[in-house]
Amino acid sequence: MRNASGRGSGAATTAIGNPGIWAVVVAAAVAASMSMGIRQTYGLFLLPLGAEEGIPAVTLGMAVALHNLTWGIAQPVTGAFGDRYGAGRVAAFGGALYVAGLGLVAIHPSAITALLGIGLMTGIGVGCAGTGSVMAAVGRAATPERRASMMGIAAAGGSVGQALLVPYAQFGIGWFGAASALGAMALAAMLIIPAARVLEWAPRNPAAPTRGVSELPELARNALGHRDFALLTLGFFACGFQLAFLTAHLPAHLALCGMPPWLGATSLMLVGLFNIPGSWFCGKLGGIIRPEVALGAIYLARSLAIALFAVLPVTEWGTLLFAAVLGSIWLGSVPLTAAAIARRFGVADLGALYGVCFFSHQIGGFLGVGAGAVLLQQTGSYAAFWPVMILVGLGAVAANWATRGPIRATAMA
């Protein structure tokens, strides 16, 4: 075991590879805004791509499910590469792959290109440039006492992308068609590359011990051998299950309920808007109370909101209120989960360890989106899925509240 003092401090430096904490936070927010914001628009394309290009909704739904699974598989590896070589280099590669994947579907829309471009290429891309990778860079740049709040600010800034890109995508679909709107998303993804240059182009402390990717299985086994890390990972499964389903299927669910097309886009936009203060607050909360306690409260509030939405009649105002409530706690789990890991194991391997935990999140996302797509294909409705969403969320509450606080922060040897 080695001391978890971390790799760097929050003090500004002159080297471009080690910018000050606020430059890192802004760069992380830009990269997360694009990588996370674009993927939040996929649900808007579910029905239009079928109508315009003949891609069945179930096929695009499975492409989004594959995107979630690919992201989960890639995250531990991309996190380990970021820990070793600098998260900025990894994010730049992810940005380029994101652009290529979206561009492929925009130029030649088909079932095959949707599975390849959205399912595989953007899945790896968000693993490289999404919150998992950039939060590790913020964690290494911040001092321990400011770590949770800085990660919360970065996550809040990252939510701006969802608030802006959802109406951007909806406008593009309405005026130019779904394929052209995907091309516009590819152009937006190009912003990840310059942000990555500022983020963390090289390790903040090259002399610090680092692990190769070959050591990742051992790191994962050791981490999962810790009871509380295993419970944290189990709880994160529910987060992915619930949020990925809502992102991919909420607009289609509203359309099936006879709601106007603008409501799905507006709901996703509200999620992004309310997540800005919500993520900041959750990050601050993680510095005041134990992160796992706050995580349990988030999962409980989310499950209660889903239960009310499921049993009450679907209305425009009710849907907007549901989106606002969910948005206030949407990505609050990210800085809290990262902070909980850092408290136990330090920040030297934070990217890889977050990736191990996040793999569970994305298995949940794959099952949530995939099962929703199959259910829609078989029954034409999502009615049977809401009770499952609630039960999975309550399981996450129990898992997080069963954890114990660490005696001291340590890093794995």
List the helices and strands and how they pair.
Elements: E1 2-3, H1 21-39, H2 48-53, H3 57-85, H4 87-107, H5 111-129, H6 131-141, H7 147-176, H8 178-189, H9 192-199, H10 216-224, H11 227-256, H12 261-286, H13 291-311, H14 316-328, H15 333-345, H16 350-379, H17 386-401, E2 410-411
Query: Which residues sit in consecutive blocks of at least 5 with pLDDT less than 50?
Result: 1-18, 408-413
According to CATH, the homologous superfamily is MFS general substrate transporter like domains
Please indicate the percent range of residues in DSSP E strands (runs of 2 or more).
Answer: under 5%
Largest sheet: 2 strands, antiparallel
Average predicted confidence as pLDDT? 83
* Strand line-up of the largest beta sheet: 1-2
Compute the number of strand runs. Answer: 2
Overall number of structural domains: 1
Tags for this model:
413 residues; Growth Hormone, Chain: A; two-stranded antiparallel sheet; globular; disordered C terminus
Walk me through this protein's architecture.
The chain is mainly alpha-helical and 413 residues long. The protein has one domain (19-411): Growth Hormone, Chain: A (Up-down Bundle), CATH 1.20.1250. Helices cover 76% and strands 1% of the residues. The protein contains 17 helices and two strands. It has helices at 21-39, 48-53, 57-85, 87-107, 111-129, 131-141, 147-176, 178-189, 192-199, 216-224, 227-256, 261-286, 291-311, 316-328, 333-345, 350-379, 386-401; strands spanning 2-3, 410-411. A two-stranded antiparallel sheet has the order 1-2. Mean pLDDT is 83; it is low at 1-18 and 408-413.
